[in-house]
Specification:
This protein has 116 residues and is an alpha+beta fold. The chain has a single domain, classed as Roll (SH3 type barrels), CATH 2.30.30.110. It is 16% helix and 34% strand. The protein contains two helices and seven strands. Strands 1, 2, 3, 4, 5, 6 and 7 form a seven-stranded antiparallel beta sheet that branches. The radius of gyration is 13 Å and the shape is globular. The termini are far apart. The mean pLDDT is 88.
Length: 116
């Protein structure tokens, strides 16, 4: 499990407008944590295929269906960063290219008002 990997994950239970159910997620936590024995938490960004999310601005990154094993055009919702127990991640779909991970990092920075 490495940064940039895309997995199917179980995001229930959730509430309100949080992304829920079984859906793809992108691992964004540092590989030092991801590969540490006994470290059970993983930080992810949920993906959606909802076109309305794609219009939310600089905190959303479009990901085409031909990347990382995705079968549909998707959007990384970077303003919904969440931590999961790694047991909630099931099948690995693939890995996002570095250029898309950079876009995700910029969207996270926008969501958290981080200035580097």
């Amino acid at each position: 499990m490495k940064r940039g990997d895309v997995y199917w994950a179980e995001l229930a239970p959730r509430s309100g407008s949080e992304q829920s159910g079984v859906r793809p997620v992108v691992v964004i936590s540092d590989d030092g944590f991801n590969l540490a024995p006994g470290w059970n938490s993983i930080i992810v960004i949920p993906l959606t295929t909802a076109q309305a999310q794609g219009r939310r601005g600089p905190t959303v990154v479009a990901i085409p269906s031909d990347l990382a094993g995705l079968t549909r055009d998707s959007f990384a919702i970077c303003h919904q960063i969440t931590t999961l127990d790694r047991a909630k991640l099931t099948k690995r779909l693939g890995t996002l290219p570095t250029a898309f991970m950079r876009e995700i990092e910029q969207a996270i920075a926008a969501a958290l008002d981080l200035n580097f």
